[in-house]
Amino acid sequence: MKPFVLLATRAEDEPADGEYALFLRGAGLEERELIRVRLEAEPMPRLDLDELSGIFVGGGPFNAADPPEEKSAVQRRVEEEFAALLDEVVARDFPFLGACYGVGTLGVHVGATIDRTYAEPVSVVPVTLTQDGAYDPLMAGMPDTFHAFVGHKEAIRSLPSTAVLLASSPGSPVQAFRVRSNVYATQFHPELDLDGIILRIHAYATYGYFSPDEVEQVIDTVRREPVSEPSRMLRNFVELHAR
């Protein structure tokens, strides 16, 4: 099988390593089958799509809607690299699944409106599939409504007509969308389990998602509802596109 690649942007080693482990487990891949590239540490290498089965994108600290003058040199580089990659990905309809930061990368590329209107605190939310989502092969076997982990400062306010809305939540109308047949992004985190989000809560306690003195309260919040379905999307993606 040709490998998949995970494009990551987390600068902190513990949550970065945890994210990679979660994608491996959720997708059912071995390390040799999922190449990790840490874009916060090095420029994106040239990716020969003919030698890959698909691309995953993890979450990260960058907000696409931030004013250009507030973006670091690393963020500006990463955004330029994603813009060039997505030109090829979308043109070829190459398998792509971006989680959380995938909304910022793919959303910008297709002309979505992204701002802070529909930010969601770190929490568990009910995500409901649209009619298109219910029939999409990426969502095969998933219930019409399921719980998922979220936590984001920006979100898509409106999608262009070239994108297909697949899922929504009460607080964020675009939780998942598709471009063409094989290019996807989710606002929620399909890779996360409870241990994974608790690790991130501790790692990002000073990043402005909540007050540092609210850590235990936020952990209590994410414990309230079981989250078991979203990782099915990762397995579906691999089953659909491994070659």
Characterization of the model:
It is a single chain. By secondary structure, this protein is of the alpha/beta class. The chain has a single domain (4-241), classed as Rossmann fold. Helix content is 32%, strand content 26%. It is built from 7 helices and 11 strands. It has helices spanning 13-27, 73-92, 101-110, 131-134, 194-203, 215-222, 232-241, and strands at 4-8, 34-38, 54-57, 96-99, 113-115, 120-129, 145-152, 155-158, 163-169, 172-179, 183-186. The strands form 2 sheets. It has a 9-stranded mixed sheet with strand order 2-1-3-4-11-10-9-6-7, with helices on both faces. A two-stranded antiparallel sheet has the order 5-8. Strand 3, helix 2 (73-92) and strand 4 form a beta-alpha-beta unit.
